[in-house]
Structure formats: structure tokens, C-alpha cells
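Run log // design_07
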């Protein structure tokens, strides 16, 4: 709810104006009801004047009603827009480690389902506010008409409202359960979409995925949602019935109590009938509001970054990087958080230094910590213990953005963007043609207006495009995590024998994670990771994997 308060506080003036207009409209409506009641009781003396008053009030009701609705509808959509923008910016500003812990399904759930739920709740805002005010003005009128009957009415309505509050609490916990199940469902959707190849090949797995994983969760979500909605629908009908019971009881009480005039009685019946619609509309809006509330709590529960650093203006958050000189790790460690009672992987302590213009290979077995080290070097992870320093400046949460601006990286799970941006963030840089040719991909892809013509390519070709994007960004330090793994032997040769030396010549510092022992001689220095520990690797002296035979290639310059 804090998020909603923040968003609403930015529209204080609109809310106030809409409130005043709604109040005027509601007051005009109740005055018409009161006037009709009075006319029924005492008749009309001046028909012309009465007609003028009547038309004036109808006009006021219409204009103020329209005015408040226009303001509130606009406000509702602006709130949804701000919520979306705020959420996307908060995700973009959330540290990688937190995003990885949350997982993609949870983030998609928030961005799609939760935002829609909040949007639906916000849509109820104009209707509920208007009807709430109408109800409030109506109650003031009833209190004025007969305080005695009003006391009686408050007692009865109080009971009904108490029942509604209890029921709303029960429905809220059901909707929280539906929301929890939705998180599970999004994980199932991810398996269905991302696992399309495996599922396409295996009928038993498809059946298992559908019957054992998807169906039970979807059915439970369906049943809980139906239960909640039906409970509220029963309550809605019960409340409508209560209005008629109320009229009857007021009528009986009024006839029994001598101090209550006939005019007050008729006024009560008229006003309660008139207020029936706003009451029903408010009650109808409540489930959507509860769902929105549950969705907002779910968004807040993710504990995304609170940073509201705007990405929509042109302000550049970091100063232009100076010339890269060195990158150093001093007793640096990175600990993954404990998961399911098991302590996370621990990288380090590591001491490591890369100088400008060096070409360094990181090697090691699966799970030895190479990619973790890459994320630590690039500033995507901050060290748990020890220090990371670039040009002698220690990496801190405050300067992490500046640190990262030196790096370009391709990780194994890279994402290929449609747009080819240059170092200034501009599209349509003519250099792109040269690199398309260099990466031997110009026959498959063109870049038009800064956008890739296609991404429907093989994995090796997609990696070449990722390298194209990296070339265009022209960062000083490049981190290539098993880039060559998907290349054919011919282009692998081009990569190690031509592209890497060219990058070195262009004063780039390259840290490449590689399993290609055939090309270890291309590196200036080699480091091997083993269970989170690093040590220099000497070709010929050290074995790549303990069980493997001695590699035959020697590097030009041993460490
Ligand atoms: N996002 C994560 N959350 C928690 N633990 C992780 C995460 N990513 C990796 N790990 C743990 O860190 C260890 C090292 O992973 P890392 O990806 O750094 O290995 P790697 O050397 O790059 O392996 P590979 O050669 O298979 O890519 C893994 O064994 C895993 O247990």
C-alpha cells in the first residue's frame, strides 16, 4: 500500500478536485431526492421556479458527475502507467543477485498479472469514490431527516458492515492463496514455453507436465477463486435483500414511534431506495480492490530496489570512463546465499590482476566458479569479502554503475536485443556493416535503422550477433564466457587466431572463459579455477582436468 500512497500523493490536486466535484454531484442528487420528497408531502406552489431549481440541480449533477469521472478515469490510467514505469525501473535497478534469487517467473507474474490486478482495482476508484460520497451525503441527509431513525439504521447497517468486513478478510486470505498458486503456475508456463523441444519429443513428459504439474495447481487456483467469488456474490445478494428488510424495519419502527413524521418516513424509504445502487456498486468493487491489494502486497514482498533513478530522462548516470589500466581482486570472495538449508557455493578468496591490453583465459571444470568470477570482475556481483578495484578505485554499491561501464560481456545465457546501439546509445552507426562482414554473418542478417533484420538463427550465429552488439558498444574490457563453444571449427579458428589478436591490437583487455585447450597458446596468461579457488595455469605442466591427459599445446608466455 505504501507504493499506492506514494503514487497517489503525486496526484494530490487532481484527487482533491475530483473529490469536490463528486461531493457537489452527490449533494445535487440527494437534494433532488429531498426536493421530490418535500414536493410529495407539501405540494408545489410555484411550478416555474421549481422547474428552474430542478433543471439547475440536474445540470449540476450531470456536469459535476462528468467532471469528476473524467478526472478520476484519467487519474486511474495515470496511476497504472506510473505503477508500470515504477515497477520496470525498480526491476532494472535491482541487483542481479536479487533478480536471480527471485527468478524470471516471479518477475513475469508481477509485471503481467499483478499489474493487471492493480489496474482493475484502480479502475474501481472513480466509481467507488463517487458512490462512497453519494452514500455519505445520503447518510447525512437521513441523519438530518430523523436522528432517531438514523440511530436505528446505524445499528442495522453496522451489523451488516461488520459481517462484510469479516467476509472480506476471509476472501482476502483466499485470494492470497490464489496469488501464491499463480506463482507456481508461472513456473509451469516457463517449463511449457522454454521446454518446448523436450516436451515436443516426449509424450510421457508432456503428460506428466500437464497432469502432475500444471493441472493440480490450476484446478486448486480455479476452485479457490470460485469459492471466494461465490461467497462475495452471496453476500451481494444478501445485502440487496437487507436493503428491503431495512425499508420494512424502518417503516415499522417509524409507525411505532410517534415522534417520527410521515414526511421523514417517506424520505427514508425514498433515500434508501436511491442509495441501493451506490451500495451495490461499492460492494461489487470490493473483490477487485482486495485482489489489487493482494497484488500490491505481492509486489512489495519481492523487495525490489527502492531506487527511483529515472531512466526516462537524458541524464547520464555515470561519468565517461577514463582509460582502463587495471582490474584487481584482493582476497575477494563471493558467497551465494544458502538455499533450502544447503550453504551456497563460495568463490575465493581470490587474488588476481589484469592489466590493460592483456588477453587472459580462465579455464576450469563445470561449476568451478568461472562465470561467478566473471560477474564479480564486471561488478554484476559485489564481493562478500575482500576487494575489487578498477584503476585502483574500490568497487562499492555506489560506484558499481561506473565500474560496469568499462565492461562488455557475453554470458552463456546471453539475451540478444533487437537494437544495435553504439557506445553513445545511438542506433544506425555505419560501423555495423564492417562488423557484420567481420563476423561472416552479413549474408544472413542486415541491420536496418539500427535493428537486426532477424534473430531466427542458429545458436552459433546468435552468438556472433551478440559479439556484434559488443563490438558496437566499444567497451574497454571484454568478458567472453565460453563464446567459442557454439562456433564451427572454422570460425573458432578465426576467433582465436584473428578476432582475439585484433581486439588486443585495438587496446582491448579481454578475459575469455574457454575450454578450447587447442588455443590456449593464444592467451597472454591462463588461470584455472577449481572449486572456487584460482591459480595460474601452465600449459604442459598442469593438467586441464585431473583425469585428462597432458595438453600438448604450450603457450607463448608462461606465467
Ligand atoms: N544464481 C545462482 N545462485 C546460486 N548458486 C549459483 C548460482 N549460479 C551458480 N551457482 C553455484 O555456483 C557454482 C559455480 O557456478 P558457475 O556458473 O560460476 O560455474 P562455471 O565454472 O561457470 O561452470 P560451467 O563451466 O558449467 O559454466 C555452481 O556449482 C552453483 O552451485
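design_07 sequence
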Amino acid at each position: 500500500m505504501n507504493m499506492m500512497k506514494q503514487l497517489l500523493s503525486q496526484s494530490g490536486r487532481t484527487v482533491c478536485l475530483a473529490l469536490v466535484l463528486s461531493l457537489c454531484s452527490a449533494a445535487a442528487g440527494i437534494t433532488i431526492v429531498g426536493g421530490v420528497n418535500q414536493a410529495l408531502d407539501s405540494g408545489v406552489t410555484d411550478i416555474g421556479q421549481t422547474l428552474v431549481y430542478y433543471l439547475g440541480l440536474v445540470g449540476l449533477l450531470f456536469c459535476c458527475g462528468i467532471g469528476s469521472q473524467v478526472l478520476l478515469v484519467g487519474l486511474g490510467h495515470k496511476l497504472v502507467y506510473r505503477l508500470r514505469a515504477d515497477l520496470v525501473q525498480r526491476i532494472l535497478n535491482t541487483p542481479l543477485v536479487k533478480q536471480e534469487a527471485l527468478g524470471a517467473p516471479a518477475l513475469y507474474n508481477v509485471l503481467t498479472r499483478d499489474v493487471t490486478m492493480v489496474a482493475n482495482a484502480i479502475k474501481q476508484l472513480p466509481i467507488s469514490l463517487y458512490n462512497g460520497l453519494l452514500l455519505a451525503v445520503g447518510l447525512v441527509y437521513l441523519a438530518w431527516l430523523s436522528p432517531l431513525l438514523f440511530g436505528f439504521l446505524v445499528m442495522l447497517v453496522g451489523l451488516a458492515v461488520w459481517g462484510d468486513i469479516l467476509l472480506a478478510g476471509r476472501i482476502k486470505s483466499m485470494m492470497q492463496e490464489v496469488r501464491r498458486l499463480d506463482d507456481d503456475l508461472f513456473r509451469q508456463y516457463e517449463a511449457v514455453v522454454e521446454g518446448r523441444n523436450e516436451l515436443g519429443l516426449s509424450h510421457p513428459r508432456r503428460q506428466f507436465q500437464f497432469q502432475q504439474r500444471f493441472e493440480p495447481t490450476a484446478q486448486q487456483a480455479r476452485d479457490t477463486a470460485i469459492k471466494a467469488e461465490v461467497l462475495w456474490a452471496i453476500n451481494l445478494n444478501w445485502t440487496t435483500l437487507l436493503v428491503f428488510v431495512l425499508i420494512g424495519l424502518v417503516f415499522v419502527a417509524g409507525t411505532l414511534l410517534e415522534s417520527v413524521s410521515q414526511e421523514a418516513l417517506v424520505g427514508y424509504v425514498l433515500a434508501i431506495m436511491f442509495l441501493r445502487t451506490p451500495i451495490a456498486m461499492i460492494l461489487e468493487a470490493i473483490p477487485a480492490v482486495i485482489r489489487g491489494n493482494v497484488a500490491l502486497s505481492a509486489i512489495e514482498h519481492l523487495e525490489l530496489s527502492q531506487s527511483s533513478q529515472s531512466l526516462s530522462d537524458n541524464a547520464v548516470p555515470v561519468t565517461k570512463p577514463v582509460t582502463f589500466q587495471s582490474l584487481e581482486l584482493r582476497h575477494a570472495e563471493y558467497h551465494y546465499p544458502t538455499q533450502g538449508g544447503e550453504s551456497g557455493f563460495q568463490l575465493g578468496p581470490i587474488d588476481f590482476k589484469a592489466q590493460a591490453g592483456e588477453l587472459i583465459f580462465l579455464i576450469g571444470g563445470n561449476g568451478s566458479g568461472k562465470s561467478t568470477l566473471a560477474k564479480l570482475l564486471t561488478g554484476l556481483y559485489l564481493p562478500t569479502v575482500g576487494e575489487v578495484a578498477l584503476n585502483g578505485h574500490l568497487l562499492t554499491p555506489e560506484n558499481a554503475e561506473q565500474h560496469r561501464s568499462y565492461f562488455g560481456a557475453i554470458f552463456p545465457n546471453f539475451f540478444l536485443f533487437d537494437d544495435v546501439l553504439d557506445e553513445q546509445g545511438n542506433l544506425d552507426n555505419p560501423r555495423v556493416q564492417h562488423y557484420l562482414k567481420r563476423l561472416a554473418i552479413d549474408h544472413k542478417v542486415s541491420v536496418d535503422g539500427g535493428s537486426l533484420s532477424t534473430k531466427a538463427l542458429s545458436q552459433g550465429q546468435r552468438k556472433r550477433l551478440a559479439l556484434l552488439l559488443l563490438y558496437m558498444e566499444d567497451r574497454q574490457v571484454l568478458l567472453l564466457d565460453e563464446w567459442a563453444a557454439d562456433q564451427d571449427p572454422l570460425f573458432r579458428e578465426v576467433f582465436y587466431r584473428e578476432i582475439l589478436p585484433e581486439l588486443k591490437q585495438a587496446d582491448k583487455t579481454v578475459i575469455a572463459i574457454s575450454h578450447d585447450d587447442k588455443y590456449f597458446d593464444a592467451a597472454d596468461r591462463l588461470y584455472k579455477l577449481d572449486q572456487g579457488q584460482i591459480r595460474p595455469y601452465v600449459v604442459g605442466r598442469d593438467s586441464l582436468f585431473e583425469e585428462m591427459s597432458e595438453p600438448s599445446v604450450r603457450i607463448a608466455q608462461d606465467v
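Residues 203-256 form the longest helix (54 residues).
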